[in-house]
């Protein structure tokens, strides 16, 4: 049995991230659409919106103090800068500024005026920054300055009102004390006792204290603050320009494209990576066939000179040869998940040629009895040979009707049992002659490769699994679904077989595009300059042997 295959470590986070990023790049149209939408949005914001201008002024807030030049005196006593910032955007300040602007010819309501104002406070300062945005530079400057001046006027009026209220309160306390003092003085003049003089002295002290407080209030500096930076009319529109908006739009569009690609990736039923294919199929990846120009339309890649495609087939054959399960049985069932079986037929033929290069006696059985085409695709001029002796007892039907000999130039030869159309396919696949042919792999040095129709399209492959056991799945990773691979694994396991591995190939559509890009000039006979010779086709000739008997063969002449 094949040893348990361990999937790649799921905790390899860098590899997982790289894999996911490569999967997202599969949906390039979504990425391109996202970037285009972002660029269009950035261009619309830059060109379709109205230009706005911003003017900024700064106000330094201070509290009322009696002597600003005295040691230890500070201008931040009792100032809550957060409350002052709320006051700057209040309706009272807006109404004062609107009245000032109305005198200058700018008729605007307080609510509309405050809608373009933004007041901020730089950290660790007593500064309020008035930023106003308007449709014209001069309008932005005038409104920003009006609002700043209105805030200072409102704050000064509020301070003076507070001082006046406190002074009135002190004066209200001072009146009764003065009347009581005059009464006590009249009693003293009339010869009152000493306790009256003491009370008079206490009242005089209180009167003096109240008078001092009133004097201090009158001496307070009520300056609310200073306009450190007067607003200046801006010379250019505010906000990001066209290049910056296009850049931001491109970044946002790329993020949108990645999000759409991720959503598409989550709901994509197709196999997204070799890692996921291995996990779904429960078998290793034997190889990945490269995209090769000029390979379309030709079944055999081995025997046509050195190419990447031929070397990949040889590598898969060597890997199978050293697989313990295959080395024990030397039987291989080649099939596809569903749909077209062309790639599976090419894989079966090239693996047969690769095993023939190793010196094995190879028998290729085409078990596709619904649309047989392997003999036609391998070449013309095939000749049936005398069937084995036991075939006469079976009535000469498929697969005992005959065999053909396929010569692969420079590589070797293998025997082929082509498929034929029969009336009852299940009965033909489960007949005793099929078992006798598959049993030829029990002989030392023999290899039997069976080509079956797609396993999910017909039950033909399932009918052969119990005899062949080892199965290789040939599929296009972008066309097969994860659920298909899981179902194939369950079907083959329930039938008593095992999946030896998977062979990936590029889709026919991609191969077609590659072929259209490269159209070499061919010649049929001798060639001249600028012409490419037609490669030799494999020769199919009669084989007089009853068994495989392909260990000894004559190497074809070297091609010029």
UniProtKB/TrEMBL annotation:
Transmembrane segments: 27-47, 244-267
Source taxon at top rank: Bacteria
Membrane found in the keyword field: yes
InterPro entries hit by this protein: Bact_polysacc_biosynth/exp (IPR050445), P-loop_NTPase (IPR027417)
UniProt keyword Lipid biosynthesis present: no
Alphabetical UniProt keywords: Membrane, Transmembrane, Transmembrane helix
Region (Disordered): 378-401, 506-560
Name of the protein described by the UniProt record: Lipopolysaccharide biosynthesis protein
């Amino acid at each position: 049995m094949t040893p348990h295959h361990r999937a790649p470590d799921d905790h390899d986070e860098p590899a997982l991230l790289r894999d996911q990023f490569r999967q997202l790049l599969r949906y390039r149209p979504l990425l391109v659409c996202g970037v285009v939408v972002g660029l269009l949005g950035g261009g619309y914001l830059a060109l379709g919106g109205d230009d706005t201008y911003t003017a900024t002024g700064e106000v330094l807030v201070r509290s009322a103090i009696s002597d600003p030049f005295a040691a230890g005196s500070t201008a931040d006593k009792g100032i809550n800068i957060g409350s002052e910032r709320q006051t700057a955007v209040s309706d009272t300040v807006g109404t004062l500024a609107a009245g000032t602007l109305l005198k200058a010819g700018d008729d605007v309501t307080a609510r509309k005026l405050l809608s373009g104002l933004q007041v901020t406070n730089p950290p660790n300062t007593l500064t309020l920054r008035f930023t106003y945005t308007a449709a014209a530079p001069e309008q932005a400057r005038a409104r920003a300055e009006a609002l700043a001046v209105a805030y200072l006027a409102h704050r000064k009026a509020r301070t003076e009102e507070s001082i006046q209220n406190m002074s009135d309160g002190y004066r209200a306390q001072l009146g009764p004390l003065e009347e009581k003092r005059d009464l006590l003085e009249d009693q003293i003049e009339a010869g009152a006792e000493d306790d009256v003089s003491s009370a008079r002295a206490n009242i005089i002290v209180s009167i003096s204290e109240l008078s001092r407080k009133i004097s201090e209030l009158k001496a307070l500096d009520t300056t609310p603050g200073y306009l450190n930076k007067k607003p200046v009319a801006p010379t250019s529109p505010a906000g990001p320009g066209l290049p910056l908006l296009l850049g931001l739009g491109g970044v946002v569009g790329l993020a949108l494209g990645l999000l759409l690609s991720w959503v598409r990736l989550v709901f994509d039923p197709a196999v997204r990576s070799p890692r996921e294919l291995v996990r779904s199929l429960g078998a290793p990846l034997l190889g990945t066939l490269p995209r090769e120009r000029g390979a379309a339309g030709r079944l055999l890649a081995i025997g046509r000179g050195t190419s990447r495609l031929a070397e990949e087939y040889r590598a898969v054959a060597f890997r199978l040869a050293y697989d313990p399960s295959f080395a024990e049985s030397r039987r291989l069932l080649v099939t596809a998940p569903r749909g077209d079986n062309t790639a599976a037929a090419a894989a079966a033929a090239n693996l047969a040629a690769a095993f023939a290069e190793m010196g094995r006696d190879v028998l290729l059985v085409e078990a596709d009895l619904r649309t047989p085409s392997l003999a036609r695709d391998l070449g013309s001029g095939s000749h049936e040979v005398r069937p084995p002796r036991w075939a006469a007892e079976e009535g000469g039907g498929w697969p005992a009707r005959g065999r053909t000999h396929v010569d692969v130039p420079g590589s070797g030869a293998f025997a082929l049992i082509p498929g034929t159309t029969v009336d009852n396919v299940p009965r033909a696949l489960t007949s005793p002659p099929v078992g006798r042919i598959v049993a030829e792999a029990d002989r030392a040095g023999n290899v039997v490769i069976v080509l079956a129709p797609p396993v999910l399209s017909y039950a033909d492959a399932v009918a052969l699994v119990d005899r062949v056991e080892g199965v290789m799945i040939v599929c296009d990773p972008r066309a097969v679904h994860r659920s298909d691979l899981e179902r194939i694994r369950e079907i083959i396991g329930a039938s008593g077989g095992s999946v030896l591995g998977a062979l990936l190939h590029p889709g026919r559509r991609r191969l077609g595009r590659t072929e259209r890009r490269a159209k070499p000039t061919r010649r049929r006979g001798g060639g001249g300059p600028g012409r490419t010779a037609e490669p030799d086709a494999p020769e199919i000739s009669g084989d007089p042997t009853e068994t495989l008997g392909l260990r000894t063969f004559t190497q074809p002449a070297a091609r010029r």
